[in-house]
Amino acid sequence: MAKRLVLSFLTDANVPDSVGNALIEAGHDVVRVRDIMAADAPDPVVAEAAMRAKRILVSWDRDFNQQRFRKERFAQLSRIGFSCPEEEGARRLRIVMDMIEFTVIRADGSPITITIAKDKISVTC
């Protein structure tokens, strides 16, 4: 039997617990921002923590799409960003979990960005 891929995630303070729980149910390692720093920690601090811990940041706000996160300092940030209604997040995540795992494997250590919206999914490697 093949060994299952275990990914490491950091869920931002605004991510519903149901999304983190869905990642855990899929066999992945999840740390929640609220467990390691102040819930209102600035986005750059959260991004830096994710990069240093080699975790994929899961966020629900569009702040991480801002120009400041396209600077060299954040070049290694991998992120899954949601822009669908919160009550749909965990369900949509479960639907695309195989695609997320495949994308991480194909990226082979390079940063990825996956956006899960109400009616589309986008992937950038």
| Total number of distinct structural domains | 1
Record field, number of beta strands: 6
Strand content bin: 15-25%
Cα-atom radius of gyration:
13 Å
Described by strand count, sense and barrel closure, the largest sheet is: 6 strands, mixed
How widely separated are the two ends?
Answer: 29 Å
Concise synopsis of the structure shown:
The chain contains four helices and six strands; from the N terminus they run βαβααββαββ. By secondary structure, the protein is α/β, with parallel strands linked by helices. It has one domain.
Architecture blueprint of SSEs:
Blueprint: E1 8-11, H1 17-25, E2 29-32, H2 33-36, H3 43-52, E3 56-59, E4 79-82, H4 89-107, E5 113-116, E6 121-124
Parallel strand pairs: 1-2, 1-3, 3-4, 4-5
Antiparallel strand pairs: 5-6
Write a structural description.
Strands 2-1-3-4-5-6 form a six-stranded mixed beta sheet, with helices on both faces. Helices cover 34% and strands 19% of the residues. The protein is an alpha/beta fold and 125 residues long. The protein has one domain (8-124). The longest helix has 19 residues, at 89-107.
